[in-house]
Known about the structure:
Layout: E1 2-11, E2 14-24, E3 29-33, H1 40-48, E4 53-60, E5 63-64, H2 70-75, E6 78-81, H3 93-101, H4 108-118, H5 120-124, H6 135-147, E7 153-157, H7 165-180, E8 184-188, H8 192-198, E9 201-206, E10 209-215, H9 216-220, H10 223-229
Parallel strand pairs: 3-8, 3-9, 6-7, 7-8
Antiparallel strand pairs: 1-2, 1-4, 4-5, 9-10
Helix pairs in contact: 3-6, 4-6, 7-8
Amino acid sequence: MLQVKNLAASYGAAPVLRGVSLDVEPGSVTAVIGVNGSGKSTLLRAISGLVPKVAGEVILDGVSVARKKPHEMARLGVAHCLEGRRVFPFMTVLENLEIAGYGSKAPIEEGLHKAFELFPILKQRKKIAAGKLSGGELQMLCVAQTLVKDCRYILIDELTAGVSPLVSQSMGQVVKELSRSGIGILWAEQNAEVALEWSDFCFLLQLGEVVLHGKSEDLMADDLVKREYLGIS
Ligand SMILES: Nc1ncnc2c1ncn2[C@@H]1O[C@H](COP(=O)(O)OP(=O)(O)OP(=O)(O)O)[C@@H](O)[C@H]1O
Ligand SMILES: [Mg+2]
């Protein structure tokens, strides 16, 4: 299990995360929702070591990993799918996947098989330059890049930004499917509706604090969530 306990982080003097605690269980999807600037990306970055922690703990299978650097976290099986769909635009889909899998303990063929099974469209487009993919396909490529790394946990930062409602739904479905293979997923998402629909557990962040958490189906029925995040009065 990946556990976060009382995590605090800041950029310079400004505190951003205040005492965030959550668990990510293997084989499940845990979503983090909240408005712009509530601290979702910072939370993921603090877990993977990209942002220094001011206080708190990150525990992986009972062992503290709070002081690990990003590449060490990746080696321990915690992959971070960063916001902004970073790929090499002039290289093909296949080349981008091969680079992502470089240094992985598992053979690259295994990772590619997993990635193409989950995203058949990427197999069809494997010889195309990544820069020519649609927004949704690019997002798939970013998630697929974590799969070729042989990870046990994936931190996904924004899955549906700028993609159509239909593609958002299918991306949510894929994340759920991915978790069924035993991977634990922590998914920061602005689109509360999609996040709640496809996650098992959900944490609501406001100004860097968890204000509500529980089973996603319960949060979906919560008055505050319905009013403020789902637009249902
Ligand atoms: N590199 C940075 N330097 C200084 N402040 C930052 C930096 N990145 C984020 N912040 C600030 O930290 C707070 C949390 O930002 P963060 O990006 O974690 O929010 P978010 O919930 O991911 O937002 P979004 O939904 O827009 O992605 C915001 O007030 C933001 O302005
Ligand atoms: Mg963000």
